[in-house]
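Bit of a strange request maybe. I'm writing a small parser for structure token strings and I need a real example to test against, not something I typed by hand. Could someone generate the tokens for this chain?
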Amino acid sequence: MKDLLDFVLKNITTHPDDVVIDEGSEDDMVVYTITVHPDDMGRVIGKSGKVINAIRTLVRVAAVRTQQRVRVNLADSGTPPQQVTSEQSSEETITSPEPAVEQVESEVVETTQSEPTVEGLTKASDDPTSESGI
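Reply from user aminoacidic:
Good idea to test on real output. This should exercise your parser:
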């Protein structure tokens, strides 16, 4: 699996020497964490995440053949992920501020549709001096 990931990533990145694949395990699952050069992040993620999802699908298909469960993670900003212990996570509770809700007042304006008129012009049928009736 790691060889497959390495092959795909080194062929789609512009900095293939900066591709790092860390292998770990979680429960009975193999976890691959990919780290790439920051310039290659967009290339690896792809539009709407299509490229990274395709890579994940390829690895899952290869894993099925060997009867393994795998997960592929992409490290953020080219930096390796930091392990957070349960002690750190319980001590540091981060609260995010509630998003500001903008109050918008709207006014309903009723309009009636009338026949358009242009000042100084009248319909030919209304003008008795009109010769052609055009």
